[in-house]
Amino acid sequence: MLQILHGTNFPFMKYRRVAYVFSSLIVLATAGWLVVNGGPREGVDFKGGTLLQVRTAPALPADDVRSALDAGGLRGVEIQQMTGQAKDEYLIRVRSEARDPFASVQTALIAKNAGVKVELRRIETVGAKVGGDLRHKALMAILSSLGVILLYVGWRYEFKFALGGVVALLHDVFVTLGCLMFAGREVSLTVVAALLTIAGYSINDTIVVFDRIRERSKSLRKEKHSRVMDIAVNETLSRTVITAFTVFLTALALFIWGGEVLRDFSLAMLVGTVFGTYSSVYVASAMALDIWIALDRGKGIQAE
Question: What gap in Å lies between CA 105 and CA 66, rounded to an integer?
């Protein structure tokens, strides 16, 4: 078995309270953003309307595109200019359910910018009723998946492990959602798929660490709880880093070369992979340690 980190002895649990503060700040920032903005930005999948991806030649500033559409009577549309090599392309979301909004967009852009050429790259249309139904099903998919994972971890492990694992799972999904919101991305069915994938990856990584902690807690009964945790985490560190790095590289390749259709999915996977690895140690294991210590103190046993 390939090992890139062998015989490490990092005192992970020594810094768990610093990690608590870090995670709390991110969670509070995400919660605050969602409250101020009235929830996440929903994509066409959930809100209904038409999403157009158009290319102009030559490229136009986003403000010029917006003013041209306003002048053409298309008010209230959302415009996002693409980045990287596709700066001449724009995502335009029209709330209207008209059959061919591209004709209106094309006419408005040409009328305001003489000589410009407008090309349709992609179009997606979802009715408001269908969007509401998809929103409900997506929410149920996330909640039911998290519920089943909660039941499994609760049955498979002791209370101290189960609680830490579930909190880490919720932490990863919520933080990933927050990072997408801060980046100005929308929540779509693709993002929901990414969040469910992250949930599965996160709990799998956590369970590997928990299995080793449980093994070590039986063979190292005389050691302090924090020391048992450190030994277990260090022994699984090589596997954790190799797995996370492999997933990260795959997601990075999708982010760079996968195009705009996979951009939200790959971005969510990049963030989720990093925080999923982090939370296995500094949320799941750290919480399990503090609960373990608290339970022992409740029995009159001094432990750290």
Answer: 10
